[in-house]
Amino acid sequence: MIDASEVPPPPPRRSRWFILGYGAAQTGAFVCFIPLLTLLLPEKASMIGGADKAMLLSLAAMLGGATAAAANLTFGALSDRTRGRLGRRRPWILIGVAMAAASLTLLAFTRTPGQLILGVILFQVAVNAFYAPLTALVPDMVPDAQKGLVSAWAGAALPLANLFTVLVVSRLTGSTGAQFAVVALATGVLILPFAVRLREPPSGRPTSFRLSLTALRESRFRALFISRLLVETAVAINTLYLLFWAQGLRTGSTPAGWSALDVFGVLLLVSTLAATASGFAAGTLSDRWRRRRVFVVAGCVGMALAFALMVGWPAWTGLLTAQLLFGASHGVHAVTVAALTAESLPDRTHAGRDLGVMNMAVAAPQSLAPAGAAVLLALGLPLSAVFVSAGLAAIAGALVLASDQTVVEPPVWYRRIHAVIRKGGG
User: Fold this and answer.
1) Is there a contact between 41 and 183 (Cβ–Cβ < 8 Å)?
2) Which of 42, 249, 292, 317 has CB 3.0 to 4.6 Å from 340, enough for a Cys bridge?
3) Alpha carbons 344 and 108: distance in angstroms, whole number
4) Using the 8-state DSSP alphabet, how is residue 254 labeled?
């Protein structure tokens, strides 16, 4: 039982500078790992693994994803318990950024499959050391009425990280050290100003350090967890294997003179612009209407349709159209599911731990997706079968959320009438 005196009061409205700073810090987090997952890790796997590049990529991503899930829960719980002059989230953000820079340096110099796998594992520990406490700042410091807007700025992080990958990292191809160095530098530049200036509210007595999954006992949280696990598996497949899909396009179907890397860059750019626009629209509308779930389900369905389009229209035009739809749908889903999750935490005093549980649904697919892909490829099935499975996962995620009655949000007119009745009766 939680003592009411230990429950923190609702947070005040946040300034535009806090919101912009938090968005920049989230962008720094994604800049840290998106270039690695989408470009640098596949490139390293190709250099080291040769003909077995897909299997090496799958193994490294699978073990890294398992590490990320455990690390996110651990550092979220540690930040719940931390007390001191620097606050409870900020120390871990600063430590994690330093660890991430060191692990990126290590990855830049890997030469064997074993070194690559070890580097990815250490990298995932470092990233989640700062990412878990960073995400916990939303339930800590942002009121419900602003969660959609803050999530929209945070949701822009993935598209902007994709853009950074295309316009900066991919242009440094041929200089591996420079690619990793620019990622580490951009991560620090984007995160550290916010972390240094952050002033957290008083957090009361230290909570117990428990790596508990008790949040999953709450039915609404559990439905969100299962849905997100399925959908993020689909997203991970697109992240990890889009470059390989672009490499497999029919000769002559791409614009003349374009390499697979050029095609990949344009696809990420299109997806980025679509996700940024749709994410901001969905975030602000979900704040205004106070209805998150309909946006989350719509995003799931849109991503499933995008995968169907990729497989059914395996040419440059089809792939471009599919990634435009995927980006728009992913933007809607990512922003609104983040806001819905922040509102659905069972216990705000353990926000870091419970968000760590939810983030397992984001991190675990980094293992599940390549593991499933590895099985399908080992059975001799084409890469298209992997993308078909991604579409099925996205649809399943939509069905789980749509069918769970605990996540049903009453219409606005019902809530207003109910509020008037309660006020009159009081």
Assistant:
1) no
2) 292
3) 40
4) S
Consecutive H or E run containing 113 = helix 113-141
Neighbours of 1 (CB within 10 A): 3
CA angle 53, 364, 345 (to 5 degrees): 155
Q: Sketch the domain layout of the chain as residue ranges.
A: 14-200+215-425
Measuring CA to CA, which residue among 29, 39, 36 is closest to residue 97? 29
| CATH T-level topology, domain 14-200+215-425 | Growth Hormone; Chain: A; (1.20.1250)
- pLDDT of 100 > 60? The answer is yes
Nearest to 239 by CA among 231, 228, 249, 251: 231
Q: Which two tokens stand for residue 312?
A: 């059914």
pLDDT digits (tens, 9 = 90+) for 18-62: 999 999 999 999 999 999 988 898 888 888 877 778 788 888 888
- Are 360 and 62 spatial neighbours (Cβ–Cβ below 8 Å)? no
pLDDT score, position 131 = 93
Closest CA to 26 of 276, 328, 366, 332: 276
Identify the residue with better confidence: 180 or 68: 180
Distances (CA, A) of 223 to 32, 60, 229, 301, 320: 30, 29, 10, 17, 33
How far apart are the C-alpha atoms of 114 and 116, rounded to whole Å? Answer: 5
Q: What is the b/e burial string over 239-274, where b = at least 16 CB atoms within 10 angstroms of the residue's CB?
A: bbbbbbbbeebeeeebeeeeeebebbbbbbbbbbbb
Is 355 in contact with 344 (CB distance < 8 Å)?
no
Q: Which of 193, 205, 222, 168 is nearest to 93 (CA)?
A: 193
DSSP string, 33-72: HHHIIIIIHHHHHHHHHGGGHHHHHHHHHHHHHHHHHHHH
